[in-house]
Amino acid sequence: MSWRQQTTAKKLRRPRALTKNGAPRAKPVDWEGQEQAVLIRWLYGEKMRGHPVGELFDATFHMPNGGHCNKKTASDFKRQGVKAGVSDLPIRQARGGWLGLYLEFKATPPKDAPLADSQFKWLEDSEYEGYCAVLALGFEEAKAVLREYASWPRTQIASERLALESGAEWRNG
User: Fold this and answer.
1) HSE-up of 151 (CA within 13 Å, CB side)?
2) Are 63 and 102 in contact (CB under 8 A)?
3) Which of left, alpha, beta for 22 (phi over 0: left; psi -120 to 50: alpha)?
4) According to CATH, what is the number of the domain 28-151?
5) First to last CA, the chain
6) For 81-108, what is each residue's pLDDT tens digit?
7) Beta strands 89-91 and 101-106: pairing type?
8) Residue 119 needs a FRET pair 20 to 30 A away by CA distance; which of 3, 22, 155, 171 works?
9) 31-49 and 139-151 are packed helices; what angle lies between their axes, rounded to 10 degrees?
């Protein structure tokens, strides 16, 4: 079997499930993921243009918590600490008296999904622990949230920090 035949053979997949009228079901579209990617691209652009909200780009990351994967991968992720409900975009920059921002992103209505109970609980618990917790429905609302958060002054540490004695030293190379 040639290399081309081997790679082509791997790409064969089972046919899509059928609808009631016998037509193949449409491939699902990740509206939320697409909009979130546009948001991150916009935030990077704001950083490149030197706008204040762009300061959040380097502190913003995505938690790969959702999506579809096989059972083994899902099991591996769970053993490694993946938790249901963790917000899509944590921002590790303390502002406005908060320790950081947890942004739960949903697609613009009507393509949005409802907030899961685990997501509600994560936002509620995060706020209790001192994080600003926000649900944004769509790209425009998320932009407004990030602009407002970036406009707040940086949170100042009011007391002396404690230093852990455990752990490897990373500061001195």
Assistant:
1) 6
2) no
3) left
4) 3.40.1350.10
5) 50
6) 888 899 999 999 999 999 999 999 999 9
7) antiparallel
8) 155
9) 40
